[in-house]
Amino acid sequence: MDYLPLFHNLRGSRVLVVGGGEIALRKSRLLAEAGAQLRVVAPEIEPQLRELVTGSGGECLLRGYVEADLNGCGLIIAATDDEPLNAQVSADAHRRCVPVNVVDAPALCSVIFPAIVDRSPLIVAISSGGDAPVLARLIRAKIETWIPSTYGQLAGLAARFRTQVKNLLPDVQQRRSFWEDVFQGPIADRQLAGQGAEAERLLLAKIAGEPPKKPVKCIWSVPGRAIRTY
Q1: SS (H, E, C) 145-198
Q2: Alpha carbon of residue 210 to chain centroid
Q3: Total domain count for the chain?
Q4: Beta carbons within 8 Å of 48's beta carbon, 6+ residues apart
Q5: What residues have CB less than 8 Å from 65, skipping those under 6 apart?
Q6: Average of pLDDT values for 150-178?
């Protein structure tokens, strides 16, 4: 495995984007959707990108990049067509141990952008490690047809009752069995069919009728025979 897949919480974090063109705009849109505070640096910044940055509370610096632009940033994106500049941004970020992505230059990256299927809060990410990004996008298109948007609503339903179920069933295996039943039974069927209110009603009924159970312990006193104790 060349890359360890991780999901990065950027909400409220400062992210530096070096570049002001179309590629920088595409990356900045994703970052803004994730709640990042953008700092975009470039001698020229296209109007859509400038509007996106200022609208999300970020800052546009109309000048060339300097290393001090990295100050306070938790992620760096180099999105220019200037290869020496991209290499310099990468070197500065690596020296500071700050994650960096250089567009179309995997060798200069410590992190890469995957192809994303967004069914928030359910997220699926597909990556080829930068070797075949077109293939990753094609696979993403297939997965998008397999996972309708209602799966995100199902995940959201579970999120609303996660703490309540955890308090009811303190054992990890109990909770796993509970949610497997939810996601493979009539509750999921209703939610995926767009009947959210009915799905929530069924989930509440299941919670109300699910008494806490102590884990079953097995003592093997005779070969091949188990004695259950509670």
Answers
A1: HHCCCHHHHHHHHHHHHHHHHHHHCCCHHHHHHHHHHHHCCHHHHHHHCCCHHH
A2: 32
A3: 2
A4: 25
A5: 18, 41, 42, 85, 88, 89
A6: 94
pLDDT grade for 49, boundaries at 50, 70 and 90: very high
d(CA 226, CA 229): 10
Q: State the CB neighbour count (10 A cutoff) for residue 199.
A: 23
- Which residue is it, tokens 């009728």? 209
Q: Is residue 228 part of a domain?
A: no
Q: Please tell me the number of Cα atoms within 13 Å of 136 on its side-chain side.
A: 16
Nearest-angstrom CA–CA distance, 151 and 158: 11
**Residue 179 domain boundaries:** 150-208
Name the pLDDT band for 210 (thresholds 50, 70, 90): low
The pLDDT tens digits of the residues spanning 14-26 come to: 999 999 999 999 9
- Residue at 204 is within a domain: yes
178 contacts 169 by C-beta, under 8 angstroms: yes
pLDDT digits (tens, 9 = 90+) for 91-100: 999 999 999 9
